[in-house]
Design a protein that fits this description.
HDH_cat; EC 1.1.1.3; threonine biosynthesis; 12 strands; disordered N terminus; Homoserine dehydrogenase; Dihydrodipicolinate Reductase, domain 2; Rossmann fold; six-stranded mixed beta sheet; alpha/beta
């Protein structure tokens, strides 16, 4: 009798299968669902998507994820109250939250979920690339609670944060990190040769989906600031956001207009950037939009003129390029380079983290 009781007890002790909740049904969330469905059709073992959520509604995943996605995307706007994902069934320890939003509110919940033993996989840069207090809380919570998959926050899944943490765990000391961290700005300055107005390239990039619908979001350098903060904090440096000096590309005339007038005001970019390009070319250099921090020194984001053989001048298209200077890489930095923009590569990075957490 005791053996039977023991067997039943062991069965009851088995943890419930992990469930997955997708927060965000926009471009990245939709790409995540599409990739999830492809991998599932190939027989890849994945946690069940139990819920899909956005700021308007929460729906069950079910067998037809594409229908659930369309239902969530077509929901009426919610007025007031708690977010839908905060009103429904709570995730239990071992579940996985996938944050495919750019929401400050969702980022605020990251440490809470982790403390409860819920894993978080995120493309939302505000978690560790925004408020320092929240970033520190996430660090504390991930040390004792759920796992935190953040490879999609910088470099869209390039082995960047993983490599940086491995260096530190191995006893290396980081001196500086610098990088071309914006795929849209990499594309713009890779194409810009002075023969066409810079504003024309911005319009082309926007129409191709490389920039946000309002390209001032990209040109402001704010996205690069957040990524630089994530890198610095992953390197163990508690860098506050306000200590990063950002030189925006947006002139005052362009910054002052409403969204409906942005297109006509883009020409305000042309004269200044043509002059900077001409000066760089005369010096045999190239323009790159770079984020850089030095341990014990300055943290800066802005346009730089670099020698043509500089590590950050390699690559093409929307490639991200990051150079890590450390004790181990004192004479020549460790350079990590590859596609760093787009919903597809971001979704792939999110699913890679989901699979990594599931396998452990």
């Amino acid at each position: 009798m005791s053996a039977v009781v023991s067997l039943r007890s062991n069965r009851r002790a088995q943890p419930a299968p992990a469930r997955l909740a997708l927060l965000g049904t926009g471009t990245v969330g939709s790409a995540f669902v599409a990739r999830y469905a492809r991998l599932a059709a190939q027989g890849v073992a994945l946690p069940e998507i139990a819920w899909l959520c956005n700021s308007r509604t929460q729906v069950s995943g079910g067998d037809d994820l594409h229908a659930a996605l369309e239902q969530a995307r077509g929901a009426a706007r919610k007025r007031g109250g708690f977010p839908p994902w905060a009103e429904g069934e709570s995730p239990r320890p071992g579940d996985i939250i996938v944050d495919a939003t750019a929401s400050e509110t969702v980022a605020d919940w990251h440490p809470e979920w982790l403390t409860r033993g819920v894993h978080v996989v995120t493309a939302n840069k505000l978690g560790t690339g925004g408020d320092l207090g929240r970033a520190l809380a996430i660090g504390d919570a991930r040390a004792t609670g759920g796992r935190y998959g953040d490879s999609a926050t910088v470099g869209a899944g390039l082995p960047l944060l993983r490599s940086l943490r491995a260096l530190i765990d191995g006893g290396d000391r980081i001196h500086a990190i610098e990088g071309v961290l914006s795929g849209s700005l990499a594309w713009l300055f890779g194409r810009y040769d002075g023969s066409r107005p810079f504003s024309a390239l911005v319009r082309e990039a926007r129409n191709a989906g490389y920039t946000e619908p309002d390209p001032r979001v990209d040109l402001s350098g704010e996205d690069v600031r957040r990524k630089l903060l994530i890198l610095a904090r992953a390197a163990g440096i508690a860098l506050p956001a306000h200590e990063v000096e950002v030189a925006s590309l947006v002139p005052a005339a362009l910054a002052a207009v409403g969204e409906d007038a942005v297109d006509a005001a883009l020409d305000a970019l042309d004269a200044g950037l043509f002059a900077r390009h001409a000066a760089a070319r005369a010096a045999g250099e190239r323009l790159c939009f770079v984020g850089r921090f030095e341990v014990g020194g300055r943290a800066q984001v802005g346009l730089r003129s670099l020698p043509a053989d500089h590590p950050l001048c390699a690559g093409s298209g929307t490639d991200n390029r990051v150079a890590i200077h450390s004790d181990r890489y004192a004479d020549h930095p460790l350079v990590i380079q590859g596609p760093g923009a787009g919903a597809e590569v971001t979704a792939a990075a999110l699913l890679d983290d989901v699979l990594s957490i599931g396998s452990r």
